[in-house]
Amino acid sequence: xxxxxxxxxxxxxxxxxxxxxxxxxxxxxxxxxxxxxxxxxxxxxxxxxxxxxxxxxxxxxxxxxxxxxxxxxxxxxxxxxxxxxxxxxxxxxxxxxxxxxxxxxxxxxxxxxxxxxxxxxxxxxxxxxxxxxxxxxxxxxxxxxxxxxxxxxxxxxxxxxxxxxxxxxxxxxxxxxxxxxxxxxxxxxxxxxxxxxxxxxxxxxxxxxxxxxxxxxxxxxxxxxxxxxxxxxxxxxxxxxxxxxxxxxxxxxxxxxxxxxxxxxxxxxxxxx
Amino acid sequence: xxxxxxxxxxxxxxxxxxxxxxxxxxxxxxxxxxxxxxxxxxxxxxxxxxxxxxxxxxxxxxxxxxxxxxxxxxxxxxxxxxxxxxxxxxxxxxxxxxxxxxxxxxxxxxxxxxxxxxxxxxxxxxxxxxxxxxxxxxxxxxxxxxxxxxxxxxxxxxxxxxxxxxxxxxxxxxxxxxxxxxxxxxxxxxxxxxxxxxxxxxxxxxxxxxxxxxxxxxxxxxxxxxxxxxxxxxxxxxxxxxxxxxxxxxxx
Amino acid sequence: xxxxxxxxxxxxxxxxxxxxxxxxxxxxxxxxxxxxxxxxxxxxxxxxxxxxxxxxxxxxxxxxxxxxxxxxxxxxxxxxxxxxxxxxxxxxxxxxxxxxxxxxxxxxxxxxxxxxxxxxxxxxxxxxxxxxxxxxxxxxxxxxxxxxxxxxxxxxxxxxxxxxxxxxxxxxxxxxxxxxxxxxxxxxxxxxxxxxxxxxxxxxxxxxxxxxxxxxxxxxxxxxxxxxxxxxxxxxxxxxxxxxxxxxxxxxxxxxxxxxxxxxxxxxxxxxxxxxxxxxxxxxxxxxxxxxxxxxxxxxxxxxxxx
Lengths: 273, 252, 307
Ligand SMILES: Nc1ncnc2c1ncn2[C@@H]1O[C@H](COP(=O)(O)OP(=O)(O)OP(=O)(O)O)[C@@H](O)[C@H]1O
Ligand SMILES: [Mg+2]
Known about the structure:
The complex is a heterotrimer of chains A (273), B (252) and C (307).
Chain A: H1 2-9, H2 19-32, H3 36-43, H4 47-64, E1 66-68, E2 74-76, H5 77-107, H6 111-116, H7 122-150, H8 156-183, H9 190-203, H10 215-222, H11 225-238, H12 243-271
Antiparallel strand pairs in A: 1-2
Helix pairs in contact in A: 2-7, 4-5, 5-7, 5-8, 5-11, 7-8, 7-12, 8-11, 8-12, 11-12
Chain B: H1 2-41, H2 54-75, H3 77-84, H4 88-94, H5 99-127, H6 138-158, H7 165-180, H8 193-201, H9 203-216, H10 221-250
Helix pairs in contact in B: 1-2, 1-5, 2-5, 2-6, 2-9, 5-6, 6-9, 6-10, 9-10
Chain C: E1 3-14, E2 17-28, E3 32-36, H1 43-50, E4 58-63, H2 68-76, E5 79-82, H3 94-104, H4 109-122, H5 138-149, E6 156-160, H6 168-183, E7 187-192, H7 195-201, E8 204-209, E9 212-217, H8 219-226, E10 230-235, H9 242-247, E11 254-257, E12 262-266, H10 269-278, E13 285-290, H11 293-301
Parallel strand pairs in C: 3-7, 3-8, 5-6, 6-7
Antiparallel strand pairs in C: 1-2, 1-4, 8-9, 10-12, 10-13, 11-12
Residues 43-44, 84, 160 of chain C line the site of magnesium ion.
């Protein structure tokens, strides 16, 4: 009797019904506006991290030689930076779609106002846009991993393990980017975002191990999302994998969930006045 | 030419609204690069490069590269939007200005932006003690020359397209590779022959080499003269094409 | 009668500023209902609350028997919205604007394509189907926005100033299409500050001013209640119209002095005009016309509607 009555008294605070379909319709809209030129831009996106890999990993790597890992093992510089390039490319890709483009659609194209007049909810717009950013990010990551394997910077099995990690990184940064987009006021604030992103890129153990920095800076680095991502991908690529990496995954999952929730709430506040 | 100065004034007045946020990127980004790359990565380059410590070697290249980034930034999106969205050029063309004034005034503003960015970087470089020659201020001249050598053709390109997808293509296939493989981070001599020649053809490497000579106090020699002439060719040819593109769109 | 939209004491406040100040509204199935009022009256704010994209600050609001606070998506699925400013998707073509929008309602692709073609026909945009949105004229964009509002075959269509900024020909085309919708049994809710529009389209309307409803009824009933049958508009060449107001005393039921003219409210316009001539006041121009909602508004608020 009790079990029979229960469902009626449970208040429906959040309804997940139809959420997937409605989010997908937002992604679909992005696919519909792909034009010939934009295709070229999209497909060629994977070139960028590859160029970095050749310039910094191979070119500068020739000046550096081998680097010692924490365990004492020596690895070539390209092997050391490649996973970090992968992680930061996942970050950059997710951020460019969810900050610049997302902000433009929200503020200037007033695209979301039109969508919100339909059954689609703010959180579903956020999810749909995020999924779209991920479709691209996933393609780029796969291409980059292929190149890493071809250059013998990692093994095929390890590349397979790194792939889902890059997807998670992309989702986490995408959610973070959206939250940031709902906070900033104008295009000028993007200079701040670019500067922040650049700082992350330079100091997150990407080009040199964080042990190269003074203790205080090092602890600061340890808590940045990009460092956690680099740590995860690098461990998967070069080994060994341990509890720290489980922590990395939890950290990124938390960023994803919190980011999405906050972004959805703030969008609702901004667009549904 | 006086009329061109009015156009420059317009851009400067406009810039007053946004200089604060751009000041952040012109000062903070070089500082970060310096710390993260020069000092961080530099500490792992044990032997130095071409007889100089890595930090000293990379700074002149970073200055030239900053000049190019700034020039490209001003010569692409703003130009496209002044034609396509904001229609600023059309408004200027309705005033008694010649095409050369409109183009020249905007390029002069770009030169100004390049100069301030390079100067900011030079100050940061001085703080880090990477200036070893009285010739160092010449880097500013080199930066403006290099900046204009990429700005002029970029303006021509931006004025002949209608969608920003083409700008993304320019960035991805021309600007980024040029920035990464023009001897800024490692000597071009270690590149495979084909890529090395690509670096020789593009403008940035010439600016990097000149800038390095000035900062490290090396004699540029006749190669230096060749660099200057070659960069000037880019400027003049870029101007000629840009002028034609502007004419085609503004005088109809 | 079933009430599709039911509001009691509806309030909308923005950071201390009250845009909608406790209004009561009931819209019945199949009717065309209008919100009439000057700039800033709170029409759009009300429409956005009804569209479930703006939570009410206070009061009761039920749409199709549901609570917007809880069932927003469910209600919006049955609404068609044409906002005051077109927010068409500039990255898509005319047809794609309809098909992608249909997908937001979960309409299958095949159905969406078919319905898009029908709607383009309905708003006479079939020839422009593959064009981008940007180069369309204002009237075409408006028609496309209206078509987009119909893509989910809504029970209620909300139209916020559907014809503002259009030329007379374009307006008539829009009116004609809206009239056809009404004949098909669709409930229309629209805002306007054009009297002729309200008189043409609305079965019932409310006059809003400063966030409140100041009158309610059918256009005809409102005119009968708040105005006379005819109006004489007099313009005098002199600097001030005021001076002539006294000399017109006793001529009509009521008299309004505007900066550029005097309005005389009378049952028989021609008779009053003749009387003006007889008193040899020699106005620069005389116009006799029927009373309109404009006059109702003037009477209720002491202000003209379109300034
Ligand atoms: N998001 C907002 N924040 C603050 N004030 C607002 C907001 N939206 C509307 N208002 C204010 O509420 C009042 C009513 O605005 P509303 O747009 O509802 O008027 P309206 O009747 O539609 O006028 P119009 O004929 O000009 O469209 C105005 O004074 C407006 O400034
Ligand atoms: Mg309005």
